[in-house]
Amino acid sequence: MLHYSIIQAYSTFLRVVVQFILLTHSRELLRASNTGQLVLQVLGERARVIEWHRKQPDMALLAAIEAGRLGLVFPTDDDSLNVNVDSAKHVNAPAKDCVPHLEYLLLLDATWQEARKMYNQSPYLKSVVKVGLQPTHASIYPLRRNQLEGGLCTAECVALLLEKAGEAGLAQQLTECLKGFIER
């Protein structure tokens, strides 16, 4: 297995990504507190939703995984599968030598408890390169109970990834949408 734990330039890594995929739990689709809808609203064609099914995974998603074109934004302790977009200060190799070629970033759009279950019940996700985020601020999203310490909602994760990719305008637009969503 390849080890991708260090990256020289965030933008080099993230500019390879052309789309965000939200693998969404069926219950999340019905929740008024779902922030994935904001991602779709702001990013348009650069984002799409795939409803998660434990026994019948999406065939296009499986093909992207098989082709190595997808990274999963999800915490992991297994450094052999981890790309950490916040580790630029620990560089000892050029980014082009460290970065897998990814076309998609996959986010599990669900509560943290559901996201863990989705991951654990989806063997096809285990070998996917994990993209780790280390936010420098606490979540502004107060609409859910039992949040993971240091965890971000879906919209905050995408905004952080956009910011790291040098797309500050889109990141700010998504963050402003989220703030308005919270205040409603």
Automatic annotation (TrEMBL):
- The protein's name: tRNA-uridine aminocarboxypropyltransferase
Q: Which SMART domains match?
A: DTW
InterPro entries in UniProt: DTW, DTWD2/TAPT
Q: Where are the transmembrane segments?
A: none
Q: Which Pfam families match?
A: DTW (PF03942)
Which major enzyme category is it? Answer: transferase
Could you tell me which residue ranges the DTW domain spans? 1-184
EC number assigned by the record? 2.5.1.25
